[in-house]
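Friendly challenge for the regulars: who can give me the structure tokens for this chain first? No prize, just bragging rights.
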Amino acid sequence: MLLVIEVFKTTLNLEELKVKREKLNARNFEIQLLGGSIGKSDKLIEDFGMCASLLDNVISVHTALTNKEGIMPGGNCDIGYLYERNVMLALDDACFIANIAALNQSHRVGVVIHNSLSYEQFSRNPYFLMIVTETLGALLMKYPNIEFWIENVTPICKEHPITFKNGCINDSADICKHLRQQFGDRIGAVFDTCHAITTARILEDLGWDYVFPGMLEAFSGVCKEVHFANVRGYGLKEGQHGCGFDPANPTDVVKLEGLLSNCMEYFPNAYLCYEITETDYIVNQQTYETMNLVNEILNNR
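First reply, four minutes later:
Bragging rights claimed.
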């Protein structure tokens, strides 16, 4: 059996954590922060303290996800919006929790932040170059036990009105490599398979060929974690984004085998985080089925 370190997403919720430990045998976690705690450090400390005994190993902390706190675009913290107050508050929250989690561990903890900047915007616009470099640099000094992991996004943000984003092809990897010249391996990337497949699917439908292999190659060497999930269509309709892989669907099984093989080839040292949208995060049915498929494939190699 080939070794893959599996990571499970969880909020700071005792019931959710207990079920994930029992049903999924989860021991490595990515903590997902939510909008209701933005800027409320006392609440974050209380919630983390309540869950700490069940968080065997915190691998990463994902910046707050919300559509109610004025975070743009699409409710995600994004390095292209570090000048916005709520984005900075949410980013500092994630760094704070990650640093606390890392104090009792033998490794640093990643802080996952989205990126909708193109590499050209970042590298050639003095404003973006300054704000990203100085902000991340200051936080790395303030929180010595964290890293920043920059995640690729999808080209379309489903808002009103709908907007289009950069940061969806190789940009996050290229920005990561640029920042590594100053901050070393405390900067990494997250390769989100759902986002990458969506991007490749849109571009290939418009006439580009072999987009996905190029993205894998670009992230190779800098990817710290894979957000592993399926996507149906362009992932814009309900139930299409961040899906699990259905073991009863032969197409899904073949897709998972190929995707898992790609990730192991290009990102052999990255964590594999199941970032799957559930209708019920206590039941965790899609994550359970996908995890079993992954382990069945690995056991047969």
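Residues 79 and 132 are 7 Å apart (CA to CA). The first strand starts at residue 6 and ends at 10. Your move, everyone else.
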